[in-house]
Specification:
Elements: H1 8-25, E1 44-51, E2 55-57, E3 61-70, H2 78-84, E4 92-98, E5 104-110, E6 113-114, E7 119-127, E8 135-145, E9 154-159, E10 174-177, E11 184-187, E12 199-200, E13 206-207, E14 211-212, E15 217-222, E16 224-225, E17 231-242, E18 250-255, E19 257-259, E20 264-270, E21 275-287, E22 292-298, H3 307-312, E23 321-327, E24 333-336, H4 340-347, E25 350-353
Parallel strand pairs: 2-11, 9-10, 14-25
Antiparallel strand pairs: 1-3, 3-7, 4-5, 4-8, 6-7, 8-9, 8-11, 12-16, 13-15, 15-20, 17-18, 17-21, 19-20, 21-22, 21-25, 22-23, 23-24
């Protein structure tokens, strides 16, 4: 496995399942009476919460700060103790604000735990762009995630000042606290709600090196645009082909970082000395509302199967395809057509290693 392959994608999927679950439950027609965690029984307490504005309009910037006191999350039970008792600096906090029609903004914070005061200190801002739903936004949930990569666990602070579905109940990993102090009202952002994920400029796709000799890495970059101007994540998936053990390809996901000077998202592609080729498989983009856009190359599974297997099952040869699809914050799917020239650029994102520099396994 490659050292710089991120486990964040897995963590994000796991925690988003928690957040999506609570979003779905909040839409249930049957709601229970208001749930409230008794004082003194909270595994975490918000000791400070401040917004610079409670009413915002297009072009404004909402600034906020929070201090969350850890009251001993590791003491919830024996199982949680093993996750939250060590490496507290590696814990993360996730915020989700939600609009009346479930448009949402998710923020992720890491390395913010103060071991001396046993608190999470957060200070950030939200830009108010065109396409942000008008109305009253609520801080629906705060997720505290333990260290541990893809094996991490989480606890959730839910907003008790919201209507929750009949399934919701108080347990040792969930607490319900009035978070109405974090409400804010949006005006003047237009009637059309942003449901489109970020897009890439195909002509901006670039590899610093397409042929590797002794060097082991090439830098991949791309320009990204989004209506909201709030891009949460950009990842790229690559297929790596070796000489023997993975000649049909192994897929890895890499997180891309924004370079302010170049105005591109970029990452290094770790082609090892044992691999002869790497090819771009997918680019996945997501904004802070939860709108996603994916650009993909499908090899028609020819790369995954040996010729013998293909002959045995008498499979029809499938054609390669390059396309794009999106999913809005409500989970609605949409497909997009790409120009022929854009497909050609995407398909050209291939890194090869000079034969004499490939190490034998």
């Amino acid at each position: 496995m490659k050292n710089n392959i991120k486990t964040m994608v897995t963590i994000m999927a796991m925690v988003l399942m928690v957040l999506c679950k609570q979003s779905i439950l909040s839409t249930q027609a049957a709601s229970v009476a208001k749930i409230e965690t008794p004082e003194g029984k909270q595994f975490a307490t918000i000791t400070k919460g401040h917004l610079n504005k409670n009413k915002v309009k297009k072009g404004d910037t909402l600034k906020y700060s929070f201090t969350i006191k850890d009251n001993g999350i590791e003491n919830i039970d024996e199982y949680m103790h093993s996750f939250f008792s060590s490496c507290k600096e590696g814990q993360e906090v996730w915020f989700e604000w939600q609009s009346p029609k479930k448009q949402c903004i998710r923020k992720i914070y890491s390395e913010i735990y103060d071991t001396k005061t046993e608190t999470f200190k957060i200070s950030d801002k939200i830009k108010i762009p065109k396409g942000m739903e008008q109305g009253r936004w609520k801080l629906s949930a705060i997720v505290i995630l333990s260290a541990g990569g893809e094996d991490a666990e989480n606890v959730v602070i839910y907003n008790s000042n919201m209507k929750w579905g009949k399934y919701m109940y108080l347990d040792n990993t969930s607490e319900f606290v009035d978070l109405s102090f974090a409400d804010f009202t949006v005006r003047g952002t237009g009637k059309k709600v942003d449901k489109e994920g970020p897009t890439i400029s195909a002509k901006s796709l670039k590899l610093s090196k397409k042929v590797l000799k002794k060097g082991t890495k090439s830098k991949f970059s791309v320009k990204v645009k989004d209506q909201s101007g709030m891009i949460r994540s950009v990842t790229c998936d690559w297929m790596f082909y070796g000489k023997k053990y993975d000649k049909y390809g192994e897929e890895y996901s890499l997180e891309m970082k924004y370079d302010k000077k170049k105005k591109v998202y970029e990452c290094k592609i770790p082609v090892s000395l044992w691999e002869k080729k790497a090819k771009l498989k997918r680019i996945v983009l997501e904004d802070y509302y939860g709108n996603k856009r994916t650009y993909y190359w499908d090899d028609g599974v020819r790369e995954y199967w040996s010729n013998k297997i293909m002959d045995d099952v008498k499979r029809k040869e499938e054609k390669e395809s390059i396309g794009s699809w999106g999913k809005d914050f409500n989970g609605k799917l949409k497909t997009y057509s790409l120009k022929k020239k854009d497909k050609k650029v995407f398909n050209s994102m291939v890194i090869t290693r000079t034969k004499k520099y490939i190490k034998k396994t």
